[in-house]
Each structure stands twice: as structure tokens, then as C-alpha cells.
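Hi W., the phenylalanine complex you wanted:
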Amino acid sequence: MAGSREQFRSRLGFILAAAGSAVGIGNLVGFPVNAAKNGGAAFLLIYALFVVFLCLPVMMAEMSLGRKTQRNPLGAYKAIGGEDSRWNFGGWLALVTPFMIAVFYQVLTVWLLGYFIGAVSGNLDAMAQPGYFNEFINGNGVFMYLFILTLLIGIILNSGVQNGIERLAKVLMPSLVIMLLALTTFVLTLPNAFLGVEYYLVPDFSKIGPEVVSNALSQAFFSLSLGMGILITYGSYVSHKESISGGAKMVAVVDTSVAFFAGLLILPAIFVFNPLTNPEELSTSSVSLVFTFLPKIFLSMQDTLGYIGANLFASAFFLLVFFAALTSQVSILQVPISAFQDELKYSRKKSVIALGITSLLLVLACTVSFGRIEFFTQFLNYGGADKSFFDLVYDIFYDTILPLNGFIVCLFVAYKWRLSKLDEEMAIGDPKFLGSFTHRYVNFALGTFIPVVLLGVFVNTVCIKFLGFSLIGALG
Ligand code: PHE
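Structure:
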């Protein structure tokens, strides 16, 4: 709709909304699994270095692009790309990517809701059985949860940036932090927990090879919601009184701290369950960790907490991850909504309905791709295996494409928009920016080694996922 663009009400609101986007399943589950398998604190260190030196500049570039153009990602690329329509490709990618990530993320969020309700209803013993997950995802309950969740998200998004997204983040983010700290503190009091802490915090650099380094970068990129058009869109709602550099740094600190504490919750919990566990043997998939492994761990807590206590603990954990997923999900869906509003001049309500219907169809295709419908279950064959429709969406949009999008953002900002224009934008609301270390570093890195590294990681991931060999592995 025409009229002035919405804005976040306050600096805190903007930071909480952006942190709400960043903190998600990636931090609470993806990070601990990666750290457990890849040398604990050694992985953490590499991850943190990537966050500071590679991801932060990209985050600032995305936010600045959004604030400068006051548009969704497609509009932003068009506004600055001008006549040169080659850049529209970047804009389309930055629109299709969040839409498709939202599709698989919705599937995971539905499962989290179902597991939360399961634990609240005292079903933990059933949930810890080996066949439960499969039955659950192929049962009819998922359709009900999907319906409830779609409605809930539709209502939030229809309430707008200030009254929907910002208000939600202001309530859920503090609750999430309190729950995370409470659960972590509690786990640390259980027997054998310190074995997990030791495993997590004593670095093992022998695990660090080229593959692990590349994983750490992909993990950091996903976790900070980069390459998804989200921060361009959120940037377009930031007032000119705010410092982009300060906001981006706060978001990175919150996001990395949550990942750190999630490690301090999950690894010790694994050792409480079985002091002889070797976390390296965990599956790499966050999905199998959350939905098949953790319920067993929570059930084992009944020895200390009683059955009801164990169910309560599990409920709190699933609620925590559900909250994190919900704030991420609304952020990513706001990207296509803002595109509908800016490009097609749809009203907010019409945008929400149009998006709700299109994404629901794709989510349903994913939901039936776990065995219910043959066509979607064995959708393609690549990388040496049969893949479902869900696998395809996951492999392309979770694992592969983000570094490519980041690479394009860097080139666009450094060589089309120009770094001097970026500086001008970043200086607005931030009188100390020009001449600061951040300024000089971002200016140097964004047009030089950051895009090179991102392109390298993208090409290597394509080789691994789709062609069955590793470029970096071959070098390493
Ligand atoms: N940063 C989010 C996470 O860690 C990634 C994400 C954002 C996923 C938005 C979906 C939507 O889970």
C-alpha cells in the first residue's frame, strides 16, 4: 500500500526483532551438534572468528541496503541496479531463498509444536520410543498443528511490523533467554554434567580440517540469518536515528551467546544421560538430535526428577526451541510480504493471504514427502541417493545457497552501489562511524576476501552435495 513505510518503534525493538530472527533452530540445535562433533571450543573459536570478521560486514551491508532503498530485497536490487538488469538475479534469489527456507522451517516448527504438546500432555515415554518420530510425522496430527501454526503466524504478520513482529520479539526473546539460562543451570547440577562441560570447553584442535572450517562458516551464516533477504527487509524498517553498525554487533553478540549456552545445555545433558557417550558419533542432523535423541535424554531424567518432572523439563525445552523458531519464521515470511506490498502494491492483508496459500501448498508437499505420497517421497536422485521433496528444499536452501547470496550481496554493494555510498548510509545515526576500525575493516573486507571465501564455500558445497566429491577435501 502506498503511504509511509512502517518502522520499528525503538532501537531495542529493532535489535530484539533482528535477534529473534537470528536465534533459531540453528543456534539451539545446529550449533551444539556441530561443536560436539568438531572439537568443542576449537569449533567455537573458529565460528566466533567467522562471525566477527566475515559475517558482521555482510550483515551491515544487508541492513544498509535495506535502509537506503526502503525496499524488500528485489526492490533494493532494482533500485540500485537501475538499468543494469543483471542484478535483478540477486534480487530474485534474495526473495526465493527466504520463501523456500520458510517452507522447510515451517515443517520443523510444526513438529516442535507437536512435540511440545506431546510433552505437556505427559507423553514423554511414548516420544522416547524409536518408532515415534516416524509415526508422528506421518500421522494426521501434523495437519492440525500445521493449521494452528499457519493461523498464528498469519495473525502476527497481519498485525504489522510494530504491532506484530516487534511486540512478539519483545515478549518471546526475554522469555527465551530466561528459559535457556534456567534449563542450562539446572542441567549443570545433574550428575556427570561436568563431563559434558569438559568435552565442550576443552578445545580439540586435531578435529579442525578444511571441511570443519567450511561447516563453521555455513553454520554462522545460517545462524545470523544472512543471505536470506531478512536483514535487507528489516533494514528498511530501521529509523535514521539508529546506528546500523551498533545494531548489527548487538545481534551478533546475542546470537552467538545463545548458541554458546545451547551448547552448555545440550552437551552436558548428553553426558548425564550416558557418561560414556562419544558425541562424535551423534548424527550430524539437527532433526534426528531434537526429535529422536533428546526425548530419550529427557526421559532418563525421570530418575532424578520423576516422570512428571521429566515431562516438564521436556516441555520447557520444546517451548524454548518453538519460540526461537517462531520469531525466525515471522522474520523470514516478512520478506515476501514486503515484496508483495512494495512491488505489487498489495495491502498487508492481501499479501498475508497470498503468501499463506502459496507457502501452505509447498509445506503440504513437504509434509507428504516422508512416505505418505510416493511421488514426493522419491522426488529425485542426486549425490548418490534418492531424495524426497523435503530433502531437495533442505539441501538447496539450507545447505547450499546462502554463501552464494552473500557473495552477490558483497559484489553488489562493493562494485555497483559502491563502498563510499555504504559509508554514507552507515554514518547516518552513527556520528562515530567514519574513521572507526569497523569502518576501515568493512571497507577493506567487503570487496576483497569476503566474497572470495563465500564463493569458495558455495562451490565446495555444490560439489559435496550434488556431485559427490569435496574440493576442499581434495586440497586438504
Ligand atoms: N537464524 C535462524 C536459525 O538459526 C535461521 C532462520 C531464520 C531460519 C529465519 C528460518 C527463518 O534458525
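Residues 160 and 348 are 8 Å apart (CA to CA).

W.
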